[in-house]
Design brief:
Length: about 425
């Protein structure tokens, strides 16, 4: 029996609609969280192409500190291995960063020469570590703490060298110092302020933190300004010391710069997008080009830039919805919280610590147990909380701050935590 050929499609039948092209520049946590949010709502709307500077899939950058300390392995911190992209029909160009955006032709050009057209473009270029531009900052042995490759270089240095100097006593610097200490190095932290984590902690909490880290073996030089990175006289010219403005030389075989980050907006600026301290976005995470969105550490929203995960997750949720065509959500800034990832040190900070008229402090100090709590109030609302030694109520305090809850009925018990306040309310 002869098989009959299938009939040709009628010229009058509608053609299948072309899927739109979404190009994502950046393969970090903000980018992939946005893609996940988009695919929840519209999994078949776009052909998605991702350009990433690193050769890896997307990983949890927050866990670089446990990776350095030896508590985690690379596979433990991977959020989206290469197989995930293939399974979700996403084209990933890992290790091939985008280098130019042609907005007129709606085209992205990569370092390796790839050209991909877009209907929508998502910028998630993150931030770059600030390398203090002192003489010797480019010597071998001077590095940032930002990527898996940075961790591998730090671990390699720890195997053959002894002295490490971390420049910066903020959250990242202290986590780097603890990781290098656990790898057997002698670690000195050089910090320009008089107290550690001065952006998140008040002076009493900072002092407790310093005591705990000194007990572990970390040395601190506060109110100390780096003037030069000194190299040795061998052909390698590897770093051998950090020189301070007062003339002291601190021995250093490894120098880790943890003096902050800067939003990575160079690509957006070259493309003519509006930028100030970062890429300007509105409440939908849209730039001034309606085809281009941006999320994460590269954006500026209402004069604010971002470095913590919680607001970035909310940006991803809002941006993903708008890319999916469900454009009813708006990004609203809220309070953020910080925890230090150092074993044996319990620290939690949330909200702000403003001073002025109408501001009240509730403070609990228990030096014998190593506990310190400070709550900042205004108009019977909780503005900020810093907890050291006993942090179990941190998320509860954070909810009170975020929700603007009236705490007048539990004010006298607020320092003693959720359980006591709840029991008093039931009585």
């Amino acid at each position: 029996m002869t098989s009959m050929p299938l009939p040709s499609p009628s010229p009058l039948s509608p053609a299948m609609p072309r899927r739109q092209s979404l190009v994502v520049i950046g393969n970090g946590m903000a980018a992939m969280r946005t893609v996940e949010e988009l695919q929840k709502l519209a999994p078949d709307l776009y052909d998605i192409t991702v350009f990433g500077a690193e050769p890896h899939g997307n990983y949890n950058r927050i866990l670089l500190s446990p990776l350095l300390s030896g508590e985690k392995k690379v596979d433990d911190i991977m959020l989206h291995p290469h197989a995930w992209y293939h399974a979700h029909g996403i084209t990933l160009h890992a290790g091939d960063p985008a280098v130019r955006i042609d907005r007129r032709r709606r085209m992205v050009h990569s370092q390796a020469g790839m050209e991909v057209a877009y209907d929508r473009l998502l910028l998630a270029t993150g931030s770059t570590p600030f390398i203090i531009p002192v003489p010797g900052h480019d010597l071998p042995g001077v590095m940032a703490f930002r990527t898996i490759d940075d961790v591998h270089h730090m671990l390699a240095a720890a195997r053959v060298h002894r002295h490490a100097v971390v420049i910066g006593g903020g959250l990242l610097g202290l986590e780097a110092a603890n990781g290098l200490l656990r790898q057997g190095m002698q670690v000195t932290v050089v910090h320009v302020s008089a107290s550690l984590m001065n952006q998140q902690l008040d002076a009493p909490a900072s002092a407790l933190l310093q005591m705990a880290l000194e007990a572990k073996g970390i040395r601190f030089l506060l109110d100390a300004h780096t003037s030069e990175i000194v190299g040795d006289t061998t052909a390698e010219k590897r770093v051998r010391a950090v020189r301070l403005k007062d003339g002291r030389d601190i021995p250093a075989d490894l120098v880790v710069m943890a003096a902050g980050v800067r939003p990575n907006m160079a690509l957006a600026q070259q493309a003519g997008l509006q930028c100030e301290r970062a890429i300007l976005v509105d409440d939908t995470l849209q730039t001034y080009d309606p085809r281009i969105y941006a999320v994460g550490e590269c954006v500026q929203h209402r004069r604010t830039t971002f470095g913590l995960v919680t607001p970035i997750w909310e940006q991803a949720r809002v941006c993903g919805a708008h890319l999916a065509g469900a454009g009813h959500r708006r990004y609203i800034q809220q309070a953020t919280a910080t925890k230090l990832k150092v074993s044996g040190v319990d620290l939690y900070s949330a909200g702000n610590f403003a001073t002025g008229a109408g501001i009240e402090d509730l403070v609990l100090r228990d030096p014998g147990r190593g506990i310190y709590k400070r709550l900042v109030l205004q108009n019977q609302r909780l503005l900020g909380a810093v907890l050291y030694g006993d942090v179990k109520d941190g998320p509860w305090y954070f909810d009170l701050i975020r929700d603007g809850s009236d705490i007048s009925a539990m004010r006298s018990r607020l320092l003693f935590g959720k359980a006591l306040c709840a029991a008093a309310t039931k009585a």
